[in-house]
Amino acid sequence: MTYLLDANVFIQAKNLHYGLDFCPAFWQWLLDNNAAGRVFSIDKVADEIAAGGDELTDWMRDHGNGLFVKTGAAVAAQFGAVSTWATQQQYEPAAINTFLQVADDYLIAHALANGHVVVAHEVPANSVKRIKIPNACIGLNLRFMTPYEILRRERARFVLGKKP
Fold it and tell me: Which pTM does this prediction carry?
């Protein structure tokens, strides 16, 4: 099983539970599982992280080589399916436009092209004002889970060692 991480996984980890300064094990877990071919993100998520211009941007620049995959022809071939699904729902035009202009549609297209499980903090919602990633996954028959679910499923362990 391979996992594809949304930008909010990185951003919320940095800002909340797994700060780069106090939980380096989480970040190493991401890199180790990327090297093992199980955890990825995409170039458009990298663009969103780079726009932050903070320590997460620095981490990505220093360690993200290989973690953020490029959008190729196989992915581009899925844009039509993602766009068709979004426009055939009951979402407001602004919601559709936003979904198709941010990394979300790219993330979904990558998952469709490569059979990835999408990982995001979002939960399904019945709002017509915003397309949530889990709603798109449900509509396009993709698996999705939260970061906590992937950590449990993969049996991640962040164990304290002795202080130096």
Answer: 0.95
